[in-house]
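Hi F.,

I've been meaning to write this up properly since the lab meeting, where we talked about keeping a consistent format for the predictions we share between groups. The idea is simple: the sequence comes first, exactly as it goes in, then the structure tokens exactly as they come out, then a line or two of notes. No screenshots and no reformatting. I'm using this chain as the first example so we have something concrete to point to.
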Amino acid sequence: RPPRSTLFPYTTLFRSPMFMPLMLIPVLAQQAPTVEGVWVEDKALSENPDALLEAQGLPWAIRKLIASGTATEVIVANPEQVEITTKLAGATRVHGGIPDGQPRDADDAVDTWSWSGDALVQTQIKTKDGKSQELVVTRKVVGSDRMLVHYALTVDGQPAHSFRQVFQREG
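Output, unedited:
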């Protein structure tokens, strides 16, 4: 009787160490965290955005209103489209784009959306009061129920500003 590996060569082939990582790909993909969902800001873990908002030129009253509220983000994301609905202090803002790394005109700025590994990155470039501003917002899920959002702002002639928000998945 011939050895089992001769009768069923695919069994030996797919059990070899070379093919084991390929067999794990569907399992790993299912376990990867997603930015999709409803997220509520954890104020205790989030940083104060005041310095960044001031550098953007927002008035004191609006900065205080933003800092006092708790943000909720509803994110719908897939390879073709990202849409984020942000609710804060009674206001709702819907924004998004195509996450392909291509710059596109959006309102008074140029937006670029892309995936960097499992992080969603938005880069927004605009000119305000004759100064160029670049805001980079990175959203990354940590574990299954926490999302870190990092904001980094550079404005011509000023030091860079950044802050971090922490969100918990709702539900």
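Notes:
The helical segments are 4-7, 9-15, 20-31, 50-55, 60-68.
The mean pLDDT is 83.

If this format works for you, I'll send the rest the same way.

G.
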